[in-house]
Amino acid sequence: xxxxxxxxxxxxxxxxxxxxxxxxxxxxxxxxxxxxxxxxxxxxxxxxxxxxxxxxxxxxxxxxxxxxxxxxxxxxxxxxxxxxxxxxxxxxxxxxxxxxxxxxxxxxxxxxxxxxxxxxxxxxxxxxxxxxxxxxxxxxxxxxxxxxxxxxxxxxxxxxxxxxxxxxxxxxxxxxxxxxxxxxxxxxxxxxxxxxxxxxxxxxxxxxxxxxxxxxxxxxxxxxxxxxxxxxxxxxxxxxxxxxxxxxxxxxxxxxxxxxxxxxxxxxxxxxxxxxxxxxxxxxxxxxxxxxxxxxxxxxxxxxxxxxxxxxxxxxxxxxxxxxxxxxxxxxxxxxxxxxxxxxxxxxxxxxxxxxxxxxxxxxxxxxxxxxxxxxxxxxxxxxxxxxxxxxxxxxxxxxxxxxxxxxxxxxxxxxxxxxxxxxxxxxxxxx
Length: 432
Ligand SMILES: Cc1ncc(COP(=O)(O)O)c(C=O)c1O
Fold this sequence. Notes:
about 425 residues; alpha/beta; Aspartate Aminotransferase, domain 1; Aspartate Aminotransferase, domain 2; 2 domains; 15 helices; globular
């Protein structure tokens, strides 16, 4: 397969300008330069079409991060762009409300199992934070139990290694438990009796729930008088149109959605049981762009298209080929204990382990370098869109094969660093 070191002149120049005036050089850590092998990976993108993207130097790639999940149909997808352009003729955002707020709320109520009432946000963090505030108000309790990633606001980020600037009093209110470890949640409830307002969790990140785990979480949460919130910012519209709650048949009290809802337009949703949701009207959850209309139009067009075309089936179908194909390659090269693709077919992750079984960013970096050279933008996650074609999958598997040849050589020669032609990928959060 063709490999080339692509010209990155413009990308590099832009980054030099950005570093002087934009802290960290980026708006989103996971899209920034620390997440890609510098010197090999593109840094700035110009445009996209379907499942392909083009960087500012004119290089083309098959995209798997897909803007970190929001692009579920494809870049410049005609049905959605048409809806945005039609709305643009009438206006973007207004001084009073717009009827599309109701149309989208009704559509989400028909789509998301727990949804009886709905409010909108812009980012995922808006609605996870809204859900937590609502749960606190509803239960008259302050503490939160969480499991997963939930955004940039104080109540969550205080639990991470990037917690500078979050007051200690806030940090103490958010407790964490481990996925697939019901005992760890049990302990939180025992040690904080009648103090936990809600359990907020990603129903699945990559590791699958063990049998009954989600049902047990729900039962334990309710038995302790708490609210169960599924953070479906990633899983919503992806595992099934109704998200992980539809896929696993476990219905939470509240749920959040965001990425994947509007094919890239900035909108998120907090949905849930009427009995809890109606209290949101008494709290403060309100912002200037909450009902911005281009995003509402895009969300309606996206969800209808995803429903009509059964888009999540496409994710499962293409994902299975890529996941099985990757694992077959790892086996063929005798690397199954060092790298594997895990998770649900529709949303799987490729893992790299050093000889002690620990995450290896060096291996990931080398694999990323070699796939990028072959025209695949790789960050370890398979985020599919409806435009990922059979041909894309085959080209990707061919690139994976070539990259694995090099990975194997580098491991055998104990020379990962020497094979790396740029700087290795860095973690966003240091392990605590
Ligand atoms: C599960 C989950 N929840 C919440 C968020 C926060 O969303 P946003 O970055 O749009 O604020 C993310 C973002 O990656 C996420 O993956």
